[in-house]
Write a structure and sequence with these properties.
mainly alpha; 6 helices; about 70% helix
Length: about 180
């Protein structure tokens, strides 16, 4: 059972047995690491923007109409761009009570079904996100504030991030079905 406070450093996602799935997994791992670095930088930048906003409004009585949306846009990117990385380590919240009481064969089926259903949900969410992005881009949609940044920006980050998560779940589902017995996570 994992509680996020393990003393050993994470070894990384398991490499699938199938060469094609392993290649896709390796590519996805490299993309995830780049996006993780960008997400960390965006979190620091968001905190600086919000700190600036508080200082500017409190001490200088200067309104900042752009900081809320800029911060929200960056947090949308951080949230969605880091999901595939977290999933590659199986770091999302899960209920492990069943895993300890189920036989290994039943637990393997449960894990496969969870990955497959999660993939289907994320694939649908991805498709809907790309349609939102397309509508916002084509229609020139913006937020209703005076700053009025285009909505295609957060929609594109949401769509790209959830697409990466769907691909990550697909890779894990394919690995589960193609790996030799006993190698599945």
């Amino acid at each position: 059972m994992s509680h996020g406070f393990d003393l050993e450093p994470a070894k990384g996602p398991a490499v699938p047995d199938n060469p094609a799935v392993a290649g896709l997994s390796g590519l996805l791992d490299r993309i995830n690491k780049v996006l993780l670095g960008l997400s960390m930088a965006a979190m620091v930048l968001t905190s600086l923007v919000l700190t600036y906003s508080v200082v500017a409004r409190y001490f200088f009585k200067s309104p900042t109409d752009w900081q809320d949306e800029a911060s929200v846009f960056m947090l949308v990117g951080v949230t969605f761009f880091s999901t595939a990385y977290v999933q590659s380590y199986r770091g999302h919240i899960g209920i492990e009570a069943l895993a300890s009481i189920l036989p290994d064969s039943v637990n393997a089926v449960r894990l496969f079904l969870v990955d497959a259903i999660s993939f289907l949900f994320c694939a649908f969410f991805s498709w809907k996100s790309w349609t939102l992005f397309h509508e916002a881009l084509v229609d020139g949609q913006t937020t209703s504030s005076t700053f009025a940044p285009p909505l295609w920006i957060p929609y594109s980050m949401m769509a790209a991030g959830i697409t990466l998560l769907a691909v990550q779940l697909l890779v894990q589902t394919l690995a589960r079905t193609t790996n030799r017995r006993g190698h599945n996570e």
